[in-house]
Amino acid sequence: MKRNVFSVDEAAPPHTPIVAVLASAQKLTKTQKRFNRLVEQINAQRAAIADWQAYRDRYQQRLAADYQPLAARIREKRIALVDLFDRLMDSGELGQRHRAKLRDILDGLLSGLLAEAGDPVLVAIYDKYAEVSFAEQQQQRVEAMRGLAGEAFGIDVDAYAGVDSPEDLAAWLDEQIQAARAEPPPASQRRRQSGKAAEREAAQTEVAQGGVRALREIYRKLASTLHPDREYDVAERARKTELMKEVNQAYAGRDLLRLLELQIRVEPIDGHTVAGLSEERLRQYIHVLEARVGRLQDDLGALMQPFALMFGGVLPRGFAPDLVDRALEADIVHLKESIRAIEADLSLFRDVRQLKQCLAGYRIARTDDEEDEGPPPSRTRSGRRRSQW
Predict the structure, then answer these.
(1) End-to-end CA distance of the chain, in Å?
(2) Ramachandran angles phi, psi of 356, nearest 5°
(3) Which residue from 33, 92, 115, 210 puts its CA 20 to 30 A from 158's CA?
(4) Nearest Cα to Cα of residue 77 among 335, 386, 353, 373
(5) How far is it, in rounded angstroms, from Cα 302 to Cα 52?
(6) 379 - beta bridge partners?
(7) DSSP 8-class letter at 318
(8) For residue range 102-154, what is the model confidence (pLDDT) as tens digits?
(9) Measured between alpha carbons, how far is 145 from 160 in angstroms, rounded to an integer?
(10) Residue 162 contacts residue 189 (beta carbons within 8 Å)
């Protein structure tokens, strides 16, 4: 299993949580409850992001220390197996049927190795036995991808000016698809809004603009309070300078919750003060917080998605670092078993008689035009089915 973890922009670490909306003498309104739920959701997202960021570093360390050396060893062993089979094919000791079966095994081994990384020596061996050269197969894949991109997604593939490799073309196509999805639909495709829909949109726009103003008001108030040039005490000036950096970062990221948290640290604000906010101001806050929830969810998803590829690209319920740890441990165990099996094969197949005995039970996978010869029962001396080929 090829493993890699892609980078993601660092999200803000958890901070002192905001004092949630309190109403000791009255029942919470729906707006206040919504505000509280969003605060809780954002704090939970922050904690999850911090956990996955910390785990990502631990994972990369274990990947470098335990997994990647084994992956490199198994590649070396498979290349050694290819070299052995290639020499046996040239030895004249194998009959036509044995050669056909060994050619099929070589095709599988070489296809897997070349999918991991190009190698001119391996390409030469592949071309030696393949009916279609490796370069021609790559070009056929590129042409098929070009046609599919034009038909299915309407992408002008002639604009692609990169290297003619399936991997590079696939990356470019993905960029084009993502960019197309981000563009708003043309005016001709937009539905006409009813009067009520237009009113709702206008109300939402007004709330959004109010949220921007609320952010700006909090920022300006904090900037005025924390301005370091107005502080003569050296230690206090340093403290305010650091706080102002946090304020600027939160404002740049439209992180209302973080600005409110900083306001609590700087000014004597309690829950009753927050509870006294008007419904209109709370709705403005909620609009900004909802946008923040979406951004944090994107950050969290970007952190988790590379790990999710180990599970077929779909995040299982309760996905957590310990699930990834168990999967990584299982892969490490599998790699060690595969290395031992290939080493046993290398030792065994140096005796051409032993190779012929194993090939006697090997079945070439049928094509659509051929009869099914049954599953390939290739086995080790212990009788277990060998999966490393």
Answers:
(1) 14
(2) -60, -40
(3) 115
(4) 335
(5) 10
(6) 385
(7) T
(8) 999 999 999 999 988 889 999 999 999 988 888 888 878 777 766 676 665 66
(9) 12
(10) no
Q: Tell me 311's DSSP state.
A: G
The rounded radius of gyration (Å) of the Cα atoms in the chain is 31
| Strands, E assignment, the chain | none
149, burial (CB in 10 Å: exposed 0-12, middle 13-18, buried 19+)? buried
Please, which residues have CB within 8 angstroms of residue 182's CB and are 6 or more apart in sequence?
none
Cα distance between residue 179 and residue 177, in whole Å: 5
Cβ within 8 Å of residue 23, ≥6 positions away: 32, 275
Distance CA 263, CA 261 (A): 5
Q: Which amino acid is at 81?
A: L
- Reported pTM: 0.62
| HSE (side-chain half, CA atoms, 13 Å) at 181 | 7
Number of H helices, E strands in the chain: 13, 0
Cβ distance 202 to 219 under 8 Å?
no
Q: Are 255 and 12 in contact (CB under 8 A)?
A: yes
Please identify every stretch of the chain with a pLDDT value under 50, giving residue numbers as ranges: 1-2, 4-25, 368-389
- For residue 316, is it left (φ>0), alpha (ψ between -120 and 50) or beta? beta
Which DSSP string corresponds to 68-108? HHHHHHHHHHHHHHHHHHHHHHHTT-S-HHHHHHHHHHHHH
**Angstrom distance (rounded) from CA 349 to CA 283:** 74
Structural contact between residues 347 and 364, judged by C-beta atoms closer than 8 angstroms: no
Of 211, 212, 218, the residue nearest 261 (C-alpha): 218
375, two tokens: 């599953």
Q: What is the DSSP letter of 157?
A: G
Q: 190: Cβ–Cβ under 8 A, 6 or more apart, which residues? A: none
Question: Both tokens of residue 72?
Answer: 């490199």
Structure tokens at 200: 């709702």
Q: How far is it, in rounded angstroms, from Cα 139 to Cα 145?
A: 10
d(Cα 229, Cα 21) in Å, to the nearest integer?
A: 34
Q: Which two structure tokens, joined as six digits, stand for 135?
A: 């370069």
Side chain identity at residue 297, one-letter code: Q
β-sheet bridge partners, residue 385: 379
